[in-house]
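Table S2 (text version). Query chain:
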Amino acid sequence: MCELFAMSARRPATVRMSLEEFSSHGGLAGPHKDGWGIAWYEDGDLRLVKENTSASHSACLRFIQDHPPESCTVLSHIRRATQGRSRLANCQPFQRELGGQMHAFTHNGDLDATRLRAAQAIESFNPVGDTDSELAFCALLERLRAAWRAADGVPSLELRLDVVCAFAQALRALGPANFLYADGDALFVHGHRRTQADGTMAPPGLHSLSRRCAGEPATYDVPGLAVSHHESGEQQVTLIASVPLSSEAGWHALREGEVLALRDGVVVARS
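Corresponding structure-token output:
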């Protein structure tokens, strides 16, 4: 299955990723990778880089590794195709504008797209590609559209969390539904089920790790990933990954159906 990664931080952090090594944590080492992508928020906008080829020989990825993004919110996806052709439009993360904010979404699973279309009328957002994941993103934005267009600015976190939780519940009936969703204000995380090491489809679908660094600049290194911050002042970082990226204590498996809302590196709400 695909691999998901996200970071939420209090202060901008530099994220340096080796997607080849990162993917090996989830058993994806080898030639069967169908694309990759990384998105990060910067100066009120969203930067998105993705390709529909393996990260192995990507000059684009090497450039990002040499010039890593610095952000408070980062989402990344490594694709193993289950639905949709091998094309750029089917690579994740996906992005759309709503309410004057850029929204990003990435999903790991295999949904019944026919039932998804029947369950949710989609009027304002259309998929560019032909994956169940992008269709799910459009369906989520459709549910959120009224709240964002009625609000003077960003809708309340409670309202958005309620919508995301209801959407996650509906999605779980259609297949494995792990997803990451960011709206420029908060990062929402939903853990469900994924293919485990023994081949079974079971929870957990995502894991989280929170770390706090007091005062001085610091770097957190695991194979395939380095997160560092260069400003003085307390830093709070929460990492989300399909499988734990290290053997250290502190990784927590999300319960089946659990939804987290994160701001500034802290879990501010859960359901």
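Notes on Table S2: The first helix runs from residue 19 to 24. The chain has one domain: 3-270.
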